[in-house]
Protein backbone atom coordinates (compact mmCIF):
# COMPACT_ATOMS: atom_id res chain seq x y z
CA UNK A 1 0.00 0.00 0.00
CA UNK A 2 2.86 2.35 0.88
CA UNK A 3 4.49 1.49 -2.48
CA UNK A 4 1.32 2.39 -4.40
CA UNK A 5 0.93 5.62 -2.44
CA UNK A 6 4.54 6.55 -3.20
CA UNK A 7 3.93 5.77 -6.89
CA UNK A 8 0.86 8.03 -6.96
CA UNK A 9 2.82 10.85 -5.34
CA UNK A 10 5.53 10.45 -7.99
CA UNK A 11 2.96 10.58 -10.81
CA UNK A 12 1.29 13.67 -9.35
CA UNK A 13 4.68 15.32 -8.85
CA UNK A 14 5.68 14.58 -12.45
CA UNK A 15 2.37 15.96 -13.69
CA UNK A 16 2.84 19.27 -11.90
CA UNK A 17 6.48 19.55 -13.01
CA UNK A 18 5.37 19.00 -16.60
CA UNK A 19 2.53 21.50 -16.27
CA UNK A 20 4.90 24.07 -14.75
CA UNK A 21 7.39 23.53 -17.58
CA UNK A 22 4.67 23.97 -20.21
CA UNK A 23 3.36 27.13 -18.58
CA UNK A 24 6.89 28.52 -18.29
CA UNK A 25 7.48 27.81 -21.98
CA UNK A 26 4.22 29.45 -22.96
CA UNK A 27 4.60 32.34 -20.55
CA UNK A 28 6.46 34.25 -23.23
CA UNK A 29 4.70 32.79 -26.27
CA UNK A 30 3.81 35.38 -28.92
CA UNK A 31 0.83 33.33 -30.11
CA UNK A 32 -1.95 33.61 -27.56
CA UNK A 33 -3.83 30.79 -29.27
CA UNK A 34 -1.53 28.50 -27.25
CA UNK A 35 -2.99 30.03 -24.11
CA UNK A 36 -6.47 29.29 -25.43
CA UNK A 37 -5.40 25.69 -25.95
CA UNK A 38 -4.58 25.54 -22.23
CA UNK A 39 -7.97 26.98 -21.35
CA UNK A 40 -6.95 30.61 -20.84
CA UNK A 41 -9.78 32.24 -22.80
CA UNK A 42 -9.90 35.61 -21.08
CA UNK A 43 -8.77 38.78 -22.81
CA UNK A 44 -6.46 40.91 -20.72
CA UNK A 45 -2.88 41.88 -19.99
CA UNK A 46 -0.23 39.18 -20.45
CA UNK A 47 3.55 39.07 -20.23
CA UNK A 48 5.50 38.03 -23.32
CA UNK A 49 9.09 38.13 -24.48
CA UNK A 50 9.86 38.42 -28.20
CA UNK A 51 12.92 36.40 -29.21
CA UNK A 52 14.98 39.47 -30.01
CA UNK A 53 14.01 41.33 -26.83
CA UNK A 54 16.27 41.37 -23.78
CA UNK A 55 13.34 41.56 -21.38
CA UNK A 56 9.64 40.69 -21.33
CA UNK A 57 6.92 43.22 -22.02
CA UNK A 58 3.30 43.50 -20.96
CA UNK A 59 0.73 43.52 -23.75
CA UNK A 60 -3.05 43.55 -24.12
CA UNK A 61 -4.38 40.31 -25.59
CA UNK A 62 -7.74 39.87 -27.35
CA UNK A 63 -8.94 36.27 -27.04
CA UNK A 64 -12.34 36.88 -28.64
CA UNK A 65 -12.24 38.83 -31.92
CA UNK A 66 -12.07 36.70 -35.07
CA UNK A 67 -10.63 33.62 -33.43
CA UNK A 68 -8.70 35.45 -30.72
CA UNK A 69 -5.02 35.19 -29.98
CA UNK A 70 -4.29 38.82 -30.93
CA UNK A 71 -1.81 41.27 -29.45
CA UNK A 72 -3.30 44.77 -29.51
CA UNK A 73 -0.73 47.29 -30.76
CA UNK A 74 -2.97 50.36 -30.97
CA UNK A 75 -6.22 51.29 -29.25
CA UNK A 76 -8.29 54.48 -29.33
CA UNK A 77 -11.83 55.06 -28.16
CA UNK A 78 -12.27 58.32 -26.23
CA UNK A 79 -9.52 60.77 -27.15
CA UNK A 80 -8.00 60.74 -23.66
CA UNK A 81 -4.48 60.09 -25.00
CA UNK A 82 -2.59 62.59 -27.17
CA UNK A 83 -1.28 60.84 -30.30
CA UNK A 84 0.45 63.92 -31.75
CA UNK A 85 3.82 62.96 -30.29
CA UNK A 86 7.52 62.86 -31.00
CA UNK A 87 9.65 60.00 -32.32
CA UNK A 88 10.82 58.75 -28.93
CA UNK A 89 7.23 58.24 -27.76
CA UNK A 90 6.27 56.36 -30.90
CA UNK A 91 9.42 54.25 -30.68
CA UNK A 92 8.94 53.08 -27.10
CA UNK A 93 5.16 53.41 -26.82
CA UNK A 94 2.81 55.49 -24.71
CA UNK A 95 -0.56 55.44 -23.01
CA UNK A 96 -2.24 52.94 -20.71
CA UNK A 97 -3.00 49.33 -21.66
CA UNK A 98 -6.30 49.66 -19.79
CA UNK A 99 -7.31 52.66 -21.91
CA UNK A 100 -5.78 54.24 -25.05
CA UNK A 101 -2.25 53.38 -26.12
CA UNK A 102 0.38 52.79 -28.78
CA UNK A 103 2.55 49.76 -28.01
CA UNK A 104 5.69 51.21 -29.61
CA UNK A 105 7.42 50.76 -32.96
CA UNK A 106 10.27 48.79 -31.42
CA UNK A 107 7.81 46.32 -29.92
CA UNK A 108 5.89 46.07 -33.20
CA UNK A 109 9.15 45.33 -34.99
CA UNK A 110 10.05 42.64 -32.46
CA UNK A 111 6.58 41.11 -32.80
CA UNK A 112 6.47 41.09 -36.61
CA UNK A 113 10.03 41.42 -37.89
CA UNK A 114 11.16 37.88 -37.12
CA UNK A 115 8.07 35.78 -37.89
CA UNK A 116 5.20 35.76 -40.37
CA UNK A 117 2.40 37.84 -38.87
CA UNK A 118 -1.05 39.12 -39.78
CA UNK A 119 -2.73 42.43 -38.99
CA UNK A 120 -6.34 43.18 -38.12
CA UNK A 121 -7.58 46.77 -38.20
CA UNK A 122 -10.86 47.43 -36.42
CA UNK A 123 -12.65 50.74 -37.04
CA UNK A 124 -15.64 51.92 -34.98
CA UNK A 125 -17.78 54.74 -36.35
CA UNK A 126 -19.82 57.23 -34.33
CA UNK A 127 -22.87 54.94 -34.48
CA UNK A 128 -20.80 52.14 -32.89
CA UNK A 129 -20.75 50.17 -36.14
CA UNK A 130 -17.52 48.22 -36.57
CA UNK A 131 -15.70 47.41 -39.80
CA UNK A 132 -12.56 45.34 -40.32
CA UNK A 133 -9.54 45.22 -42.59
CA UNK A 134 -7.47 42.04 -42.32
CA UNK A 135 -4.02 41.59 -43.88
CA UNK A 136 -2.65 38.06 -43.76
CA UNK A 137 0.91 39.36 -44.08
CA UNK A 138 2.20 42.32 -42.05
CA UNK A 139 5.56 43.47 -40.77
CA UNK A 140 7.71 46.53 -40.25
CA UNK A 141 11.45 47.04 -40.60
CA UNK A 142 14.00 48.18 -37.99
CA UNK A 143 14.66 51.70 -36.78
CA UNK A 144 17.85 51.88 -38.86
CA UNK A 145 15.59 51.76 -41.93
CA UNK A 146 13.02 54.16 -40.47
CA UNK A 147 10.58 51.51 -39.21
CA UNK A 148 9.11 51.12 -42.73
CA UNK A 149 5.82 49.37 -43.43
CA UNK A 150 7.79 46.67 -45.23
CA UNK A 151 5.29 43.79 -45.47
CA UNK A 152 1.58 44.11 -46.24
CA UNK A 153 -0.49 41.69 -48.33
CA UNK A 154 -3.60 39.53 -48.45
CA UNK A 155 -6.35 42.06 -47.73
CA UNK A 156 -9.87 40.98 -46.81
CA UNK A 157 -12.69 42.63 -44.90
CA UNK A 158 -15.57 45.10 -45.08
CA UNK A 159 -13.64 48.29 -44.22
CA UNK A 160 -11.88 48.56 -47.58
CA UNK A 161 -8.14 48.46 -48.17
CA UNK A 162 -6.87 51.84 -47.02
CA UNK A 163 -3.42 50.76 -45.86
CA UNK A 164 -1.77 49.31 -48.98
CA UNK A 165 -1.10 52.82 -50.41
CA UNK A 166 1.24 53.30 -47.43
CA UNK A 167 3.30 50.17 -48.17
CA UNK A 168 7.09 50.79 -48.10
CA UNK A 169 6.60 54.15 -46.38
CA UNK A 170 8.81 55.03 -43.44
CA UNK A 171 7.30 56.17 -40.17
CA UNK A 172 7.09 59.90 -39.50
CA UNK A 173 6.32 61.94 -36.39
CA UNK A 174 6.04 65.65 -35.71
CA UNK A 175 9.80 65.90 -35.08
CA UNK A 176 11.08 63.30 -37.59
CA UNK A 177 9.98 63.64 -41.23
CA UNK A 178 10.48 60.58 -43.46
CA UNK A 179 7.52 60.86 -45.84
CA UNK A 180 7.68 61.15 -49.63
CA UNK A 181 6.13 64.60 -49.81
CA UNK A 182 7.73 68.03 -49.97
CA UNK A 183 5.98 69.08 -46.76
CA UNK A 184 5.99 67.47 -43.32
CA UNK A 185 2.84 65.32 -43.41
CA UNK A 186 2.96 64.28 -39.75
CA UNK A 187 2.77 67.93 -38.73
CA UNK A 188 0.01 68.64 -41.24
CA UNK A 189 -2.09 65.63 -40.24
CA UNK A 190 -1.40 65.83 -36.50
CA UNK A 191 -0.22 62.28 -35.93
CA UNK A 192 2.51 59.71 -36.29
CA UNK A 193 2.18 57.26 -39.19
CA UNK A 194 3.56 55.62 -42.31
CA UNK A 195 2.75 58.69 -44.38
CA UNK A 196 3.30 58.03 -48.09
CA UNK A 197 2.29 61.57 -48.97
CA UNK A 198 -0.08 64.22 -47.77
CA UNK A 199 -3.19 62.75 -49.39
CA UNK A 200 -3.49 59.95 -46.87
CA UNK A 201 -5.93 57.05 -47.24
CA UNK A 202 -6.01 56.61 -43.48
CA UNK A 203 -4.84 58.44 -40.38
CA UNK A 204 -5.46 56.13 -37.44
CA UNK A 205 -3.17 58.13 -35.16
CA UNK A 206 -4.58 61.49 -36.24
CA UNK A 207 -6.69 63.99 -34.33
CA UNK A 208 -9.51 62.45 -32.28
CA UNK A 209 -12.76 64.35 -32.76
CA UNK A 210 -15.88 62.34 -32.02
CA UNK A 211 -18.15 64.54 -34.12
CA UNK A 212 -18.51 65.84 -37.65
CA UNK A 213 -15.14 67.31 -38.56
CA UNK A 214 -14.78 71.09 -38.56
CA UNK A 215 -13.40 72.44 -41.83
CA UNK A 216 -10.00 73.08 -40.23
CA UNK A 217 -9.61 69.40 -39.35
CA UNK A 218 -10.66 67.76 -42.61
CA UNK A 219 -8.39 64.82 -43.43
CA UNK A 220 -6.60 65.30 -40.08
CA UNK A 221 -8.91 63.20 -37.93
CA UNK A 222 -8.95 59.49 -37.19
CA UNK A 223 -10.19 58.29 -40.57
CA UNK A 224 -10.11 55.28 -42.89
CA UNK A 225 -10.93 56.09 -46.51
CA UNK A 226 -12.65 52.78 -47.29
CA UNK A 227 -15.06 53.17 -44.37
CA UNK A 228 -16.90 56.51 -44.34
CA UNK A 229 -14.27 58.43 -46.34
CA UNK A 230 -11.64 61.12 -45.71
CA UNK A 231 -13.87 63.66 -44.00
CA UNK A 232 -15.30 61.38 -41.33
CA UNK A 233 -13.69 61.11 -37.89
CA UNK A 234 -14.25 57.71 -36.31
CA UNK A 235 -15.03 57.05 -32.66
CA UNK A 236 -12.37 54.39 -32.23
CA UNK A 237 -9.78 52.09 -33.73
CA UNK A 238 -7.68 49.08 -32.83
CA UNK A 239 -4.73 47.45 -34.54
CA UNK A 240 -4.04 43.82 -33.64
CA UNK A 241 -1.33 41.37 -34.71
CA UNK A 242 -0.76 37.65 -34.30
CA UNK A 243 1.57 35.03 -35.78
CA UNK A 244 0.34 33.24 -38.90
CA UNK A 245 -0.17 29.57 -38.20
CA UNK A 246 1.60 27.28 -40.65
TrEMBL record:
It comes from the Eukaryota. Residues 23-245 form the Fibrinogen C-terminal domain. GO terms for cellular component: extracellular region. Keywords: Coiled coil, Disulfide bond, Glycoprotein, Secreted, Signal. It holds the Pfam family Fibrinogen_C. It is found in: Secreted. This is Fibrinogen C-terminal domain-containing protein. It comes from Psylliodes chrysocephalus.
Amino acid sequence: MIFHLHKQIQIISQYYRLKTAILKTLQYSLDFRFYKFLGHNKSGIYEIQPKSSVKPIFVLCDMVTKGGGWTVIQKRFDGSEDFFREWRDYKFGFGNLHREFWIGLENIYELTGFQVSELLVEITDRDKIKAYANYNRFGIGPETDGYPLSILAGFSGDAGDSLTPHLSSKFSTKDINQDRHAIHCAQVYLGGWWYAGCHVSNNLNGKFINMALPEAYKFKGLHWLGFRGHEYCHAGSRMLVRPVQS
